[in-house]
Amino acid sequence: MTLKSILRLCAPATLLASGAIVSAQVLLPSVPPKQFGGSVTAAYEGWYDNPDGTHSFLIGYFSRNTEAELDIPIGPNNHFEPGNPDMGQPTHFLTGRRYGMFLYTMPKEFTKTQKLSWVLTANGVTTSVPFYMSPDYNVTPSISSEQSPGGGYNVPPVLRFSEKGNSFRGPLANPARAIARTASVGTPISLDFWVDDDALNSTGSNAPTRNPPPPVNVSVSKYRGSGPVTFGDAHPSFEALKGGKPDEPYSGKASTTVKFSDAGDYMLHVTANDYSGNGGGGSVCCWTTAIVKVAVSGASNPVRTGGQ
User: Fold this and answer.
1) From CA 170, how far away is CA 273, in angstroms rounded?
2) Domain extents for the chain?
3) What is the CA radius of gyration of the chain?
4) Of the CATH numbers 2.60.40.10, 2.60.40.1820, 3.30.200.120, 1.10.260.40, which one belongs to the domain with range 158-297?
5) Residue 252, pLDDT above cutoff 60
6) What 8-state DSSP symbol labels residue 27?
7) Which of 132, 176, 192, 292 is buried deepest, with most CB atoms within 10 A?
8) Dist CA 84 CA 82 (whole Å)
9) In the chain, which ranges are continuous DSSP H helix?
10) Considering only CA atoms, which of 186, 223, 218 is closest in space to residue 69?
11) Element of type H or E holding 294
């Protein structure tokens, strides 16, 4: 594990110790999680430069709630500063640590001396975490920094929402890149996933992987929206279409259903992890994210999503 990986794994504690967290009471890293009533803190996965000179920031969060999921609308309790308060961040917060949930790209004029902060208030505790282009947080989420036992370098899985649809690779989730769907209140819609992956894996020691998990797993969750969202299976299993073992190129398909209780505009968040697991094991590679926007109308005839 590299020094940068260690720094990123320690980031929440480091930010707290450095005074990046502002709250009504001193919030120490040792504060234990709670089932309910805990705070939520932004997590900085890292940044990278784009070929056009712009800079992308990869951002997640840590909720100290182990049972409660929170809804915090864009506004005084959930905003970025300075500038636009809405940078595509979630308004629905899941439990625990959530890696690289969204990506925001700053213009090339944004300099290394500038900072962007995400301010969150949850259960009476306000946290403010700054994001800036520190060399310690320069990442390459599109390719692993460690070789697999076979000598290759892992890359994120390719994710599609129809067999021949637009593809996503890497943690690129942002509402500006979302695909669109429609639904009716109370009527489940199908959500299908196709993935392709190189099935490369690094254990950190280059030792062969024993009892490996499936090459790719997917999770889907509510990201924004005013009402309840029910998933038939938030972690659907993939049917292997090709491969299925380490270092054997893999393709698979999975499906789930989604039902909405209230009309309105919603966003769903999809994460596809390969062998590297959640957060890439600290190396910030290799997983893929995407957002699905769903316009939900009043109850009508059954709806099935079409291809993208």
Assistant:
1) 10
2) 3-137, 158-297
3) 19
4) 2.60.40.10
5) yes
6) -
7) 292
8) 7
9) 3-9, 11-17
10) 223
11) strand 287-297
Examine the pLDDT at 6 and tell me if it is beyond 60: no
Distance from C-alpha of 136 to C-alpha of 61, rounded to nearest angstrom? 19
pLDDT confidence tier of residue 308, bands split at 50, 70 and 90: very low
What is the C-alpha separation between 252 and 218, in angstroms, rounded? 11
Predicted confidence (pLDDT) per residue in 168-207, tens digit: 999 999 999 999 999 999 999 999 999 999 998 765 555 6
**pTM of the predicted structure, to 2 decimals:** 0.86
CA 209 to chain CA centroid, Å, is 25
Q: Which residues contact 51 (CB under 8 A, 6 or more apart)?
A: none
CA 36 to each of CA 12, 32, 76, 80: distance values in angstroms, whole numbers, following the listed order: 20, 12, 21, 25
CB atoms within 10 A of CB 149: 16
* Average of per-residue pLDDT values in the chain: 86
Non-local CB neighbours of 236 within 8 Å, separated by 6+ positions: 193, 218, 220, 254, 255, 256
- Cα-based distances in Å from 33 to 88, 177, 209: 26, 33, 32
What average pLDDT does the segment 92-103 reach? 97
- Number of residues that make up the chain: 308
The β-bridge partners of 264 are 296
Show the beta-strand stretches assigned E in 177-302.
179-184, 189-197, 217-224, 229-231, 239-242, 250-260, 264-273, 287-297
Identity at 215, one-letter amino acid code: P
CA pair distance 231, 82, nearest whole angstrom = 36
